[in-house]
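User: I'm putting together notes for a lab meeting next week and I want to include a structural view of one of the chains we've been expressing. I don't have a solved structure, so I'd like a prediction I can at least talk through. The sequence is below, exactly as it appears in our construct file.
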Amino acid sequence: MSGRFRGRLLHALGLIAMLVFTIFPFFWMVSSSFKTQTDLLASPPVWLFRPTLANYADVFADQKVVDAVINSLIVAIGSTGLAVLLGTPAAFALARYEFRGKADLWFWFISNRFISPIVLALPIYLLAQSAGLLDTHLVLILVYITFILPIVIWISTDQFRSIPKELEEAARLEGASQFDIFRRIYLPLGLPGIAVSAIFGFIFSWNELLYALVLTRRSVQTAPVVATSFMSGYELPWGKIMATGTVIVLPVTIFALLVSRHMVRGLTMGATK
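Assistant: Thanks for the context. Below is the predicted structure for the 273-residue chain, given as structure tokens.
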């Protein structure tokens, strides 16, 4: 066996191992959502079983779960949309202009991702309580924006830097204003990077549990909070928990598949300036 073939074989085995490691938890959750409680608790695990939709019937009959999914959609779309709206012009300015304090401002945006969320949980709770925002969509949207905005600025800045300056200079010679250059050149060409940052922001907002658990009560509970609420008492409805988890993951998966083309371009374009 030649060294080159051995290297390719190890590379392929590594990719297969990574693929199995990534997909197996998702496969286990989805398959478990179609099992009865008896099959779920069987030892050794049952691989061949008669599927049932009873768990999904329980999930969609529970108004609390339906409301939680709607709350998650409102918070995820609101926080991601506002973060992209605010972060894209900021990324354009950081990519194309030189001004005093630019390096400090850039570091401040990125440093927001260095702080552990648990450190800020109590101060944010006290601020939200004093402002009367507890258990509202607005408080989650505002908190999530502070975490998504650095991601948007980070990715979009790199994307805008990869766009040739000659396009901007040619547009200036044609008499285009700065806003026209931003709208007609940088926004279309930077769309892959903006899409990638929106995907990450949406996934973060959709999956976030800590702040949703601290800042909400009954009115605005999100899907992850409701999923954890099933794990109480002496009986664990694993089938309902797995079905709820599948319902939670499904919108994010569909969204990622729809924008996967932009995602691949956005992740590679900045590296091929």
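A couple of points you could mention at the meeting. The mean pLDDT is 84. The radius of gyration is 23 Å.

User: Perfect, that's what I needed.
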